[in-house]
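LOG
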Amino acid sequence: MSEAHSVLFDPNESYYQGQDNLQYYQGEYSQDSSAVSPTYGYQTTNSQEYDTYAYPPPAGAPQVQVSFLAAFGSGGLPGEPPLLEELDINFDHVKTKTFAVLNPLKPVDSHMMDDVDLVGPLIFCLLLGLALLFTGRIQFGYIYGVAMVGCVSIYCILNLMSRDGIDFYRTASVLGYCLLPIVFLAVISSLLRLRDSSEQISTILSPFIVGWATFAAAKIFVSVLVMHDQRLLVAYPVALFYTCFSLITIF
């Protein structure tokens, strides 16, 4: 072992004879945990260790806002679209289409349904089910079942009648938004049942509610598909669709 040690570290080598070639860094050691750490060119304390070692952001770098609300807005990175926009949820469009149903006498823009939106229809179907739930009637399965069968049927009828045709999502969007008057009927019917009042009021209101929903939906379909000469043919299957919902609501 001594020979191996002498071969590896030969004391006769001139490099080890002098101390000019050896450089040592001076440091201090202390038992106190809050003392200054060993010095290697600069000093850091335990409380400032991460701040000292962190690299500063480059000039002009975007400042990222980290918060819960920033995930639903545009507060993340500059130019990044909000989360709701990435999910194709635009509440301005929902409001515009809802007001078009509430005021069916207002002229309808033919490009209003270019943006396919199913958020409003899902909300109205949920509200309809909740309104019926207050009277102890769980009708969610009937609501979504009738809605699916009706949307498929009207989708097929409209594509047979129109020249350009319409896709299924737009058909479901129009029928779902025009379900809002049926939601009003369900709320009125539920309030009358809770107060043990006569249900004849709901029965009397149901033809007007069905006519309101039918007129609004047929007007949108006619405007989008340019079928002004076939308004009554479009309104007939739509009226049957909303009549089913009115029967679920009243009985």
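LOG (cont.) second protein
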Amino acid sequence: MQRHKLFRSSSIRIKSHQKLRTLFASMIGIIFIFVICSEFYIGKHAVRILNFYNNQTQPSNREGFLFSIRNKIIKLQNIGNSIQEKIESIEVSDFDEYHKFLVDARINANKTFFFFNDTKTFHKLFQTWLNSRSMDNGLEIDFKLNHRHLCFEQGRAVPILIAVTSSATHLESRAAIRETWGGYAKEKGAVVVFFLGLPKNPKYHSRVFDENSKFHDIVQANFIDTYTNLTMKTISVLKWMTEVCSLAKYILKVDDDMFINIDNFLNITESKNESKTIMGELAHDWPPVRSAKNKWYTSYNDYPFSIYPDFVFGPSYLLTGDSAKSLYEESLKLNLFRLEDVYVTGFVAEKAQVKRSNLPAMFNTPRDLQPCNFRHLLSSHGHTPPDIRRHWMWLTRRNFKCEP
């Protein structure tokens, strides 16, 4: 009995639903017919009204009223079009556009916000972001060890100054450089200076002091020697160049695990007459690393864009002497950034209007240093002190022959 009641109630619901569907379809049909008839009626009478006003100069009150409404509608449309044109002609300020950019970031961070196919759009927003970071960063760098005598007359006769950024604990790396390509560079008229910070381990204070007393080629700044302070170390190079060696033609900034072809760099200093330029292995449209476990991690808060501006990879790059001062001065007006090469050769260079260009054969990865290959290279990265000595011994042999 209960099952019969349920079946009966369900059949009643089905019938009622069918009636509702039929009623709904009828209403849709009536509305459709009404719309068609209305359009037909309006079209037919619109023709009559137009014919009337083409043939008569004095319209009736009713038709005149309709005609005046038509004219007002046309005027309103024209006013609307002119307002739209004015709105479109108004240029949105860079600040407003950047503010919209930040708002969109919070809403749509994982979709289109961080990706720019239009380089003009990226450049414009990047400049606004860069200006927002422009302020006195309070950076003060003093030198605990200094050698102003290394650049006579501000380096007027120095073709190239080689600034080797080294850790206070890397005594063996500096020794290997002095015994190999660094010593050879000094024989050719270059100036070689090692730039250090303060060691964490107190025992290295006396070792660095003894090393400097012997070779007189160490400039030590007053910050702790850590990877995160590499940016400050390069700024100390720029400060020293500005104060001591501002007239040197070129500056070669290198890490202490680089192997350098001095002859090829000297050829560049003689053949090139660049101005306000940084040359090296150029990074174009280089994306930030977003993995927090990575050594080069950059958060969205630190840098919101999907690509960096053009910069030159940090292990080695060549600067024109006239760029050091402007880079140093701008570095004091911009918030520091942990990645030294991106900051100095990207952000600061952009503010200082220093060009970045690619220098072929300047590599920041390990290269084959066989004699016949090395003659075409400028630099190779990632070499231990024994490796540097071994390659130098092999390269200084004069009994090898290479195909022209």
